Amino acid sequence: METVRRIQVVVGATVVLAGWWAATGLSRLPVLIVVLPTVVAAWLLVLLHHGYLLGRACAHRRRRRDSRSRREQWAPAADIRRPIDYTNVVPRPAAESPVDQQGRFRAIGIRLATLPLLAVLFLTAQTVFLQHSDDLGLGLVLAECLLLGWLVWTVWSEQQPSQAWVASRIRAELFRREMFLLLAGVGPYLGRSTQQTGRIRDARTGLLAAAGAAELDDFARLAERDTDGAERYWQDEVWRRASDGVAGSCDDLGERMRTYLAYRIRRQRLYMELAAEKSEGTESVLGKVAKGVALGAVAVAVSYAVVLGVVRDGRAPSTAAAVIAVLAAGLAPLCNSVLAVQNLLAGQRLAASYHEARQELLGHENTLRRLMEEPEGPDLAVAFRALVVRTEATLTEELRRWRITVAKPEFDAGL
Q1: Rounded to whole angstroms, how far apart are CA atoms 232 and 61?
Q2: 91 Cβ partners below 8 Å, 6+ apart?
Q3: Which of 33, 309, 316, 392 could make an SS bond with 135 (beta carbons 3.0 to 4.6 A apart)?
């Protein structure tokens, strides 16, 4: 449905542009000629915004199709219980997808990266092809002013542009983490009865659903804070309370270990693997595009220098020379736009973080598999709970690195 709506918006904008162009050609009214470049600029921005979101959706479906066989291989066996099949474990509530928030943030960032390029092209076209007194030349200059004004306004008005996306993903991940804390009975649920666990779960999920950015940071800590400000870290509590037998009791220990392995560690490993491949692929494509544009800019600049060297008798440059001049002026800001998009997506940094988290999860998986070979008992329950806290610490740290990488106080924009 969303895809159809975006296609309708693009088609509608194209119809408006075609109608305006036709009316301008037939009537030759000065006001229509002056406004025409602004209409063209608006059409280009609409095409870029919705075209990116449409391409993003298509790329997501393609990646899902290409990774289907791998996801099926990593799918839990039918005899392994799901996390929500255990007492007190409930699915995370439905909310707006972090993917939607990510798409909006990146679409605005890509649009901002393109605005300086369009402004330079409009001004260059006016300078090279038209007289200052022409209506179309006036329209091109006016369109340039509007583009730069929109650029400044968006940067100033879109403060903390990634906050909605960051908060949405952190909240979703912390809801998911809460499921596995309940499954293993660690953290705030260590040593609690069934009734106490249910009350604590309801209180924590209620706080998490309404938490802001600062509250989410505090919620992500793997520690309990006492009234005097002292902290009791969950992993320390597992070993400290093992001596009184609290951390050494766990119903269905073997099944819980298999569930945690299949639904938490292995699924997160697959997610990190696919996310790293996506980030590396994006980084590779943008890097090649940036290098190609830079080489093209050099080639065009050399060609323009040759043309200027040939035309030395006072004659006006040919149309081909004028086109080369526009290209020479536009390729440099185009390279800057590609680099801005590359910085916005931060593929290289995200891929490095995903690889590190995946490697740590592999170590946790090997440790858990070794624990699953040992006989059940209080010592095994303590070791399993300690491993769960270590695994959740790894995933929480990856979430912290991700937030540092993608969070922006404002959009970057340059000319």
Answers
A1: 44
A2: 84, 179
A3: 33
What is the C-alpha to C-alpha distance for residues 162 and 411, in angstroms, rounded to an integer? 9
State in Å, rounded, how far the first CA of the chain is from the last one: 37
CB atoms under 10 Å from CB of 47, counted, come to: 15
Q: What is the pLDDT of residues 203-231, one digit of tens each?
A: 999 999 888 878 888 889 888 887 777 78
Helix (H, G, I), strand (E, B) or coil at 72: helix
Name the band, by pLDDT with cuts 50, 70 and 90, for residue 298. confident
Which DSSP string corresponds to 279-339?
HHHHHHHHHHHHHHHHHHHHHHHHHHHHHHHH--SSPPPPHHHHHHHHHHHHHHHHHHHHH
Which residues lie below 8 Å from residue 215, measured CB to CB, with a gap of 6+? 207
Tokens for 239? 């070993």
Tokens of 412: 């970057």
Stretch 132-139: mean pLDDT:
80
The residues, any chain, with a CB within 8 Å of residue 61's CB and separated by 6 or more, are none
How do 231-233 and 223-225 pair as beta strands? antiparallel
Residue with tokens 């440099």: 332
The DSSP secondary-structure symbol of 78 reads T
Give the confidence band of 133 by pLDDT, cuts at 50, 70, 90. Answer: low
- Indicate if the pLDDT at residue 249 is higher than 80: no
For the whole model, what pTM was predicted? 0.88
Structural contact between residues 373 and 74, judged by C-beta atoms closer than 8 angstroms: no
How much is the pLDDT for 156? 87
Q: Which residues contact 348 (CB under 8 A, 6 or more apart)?
A: 279, 280, 283
| Dihedral, 308, 312, 316, 321 alpha carbons, nearest 10 | -20
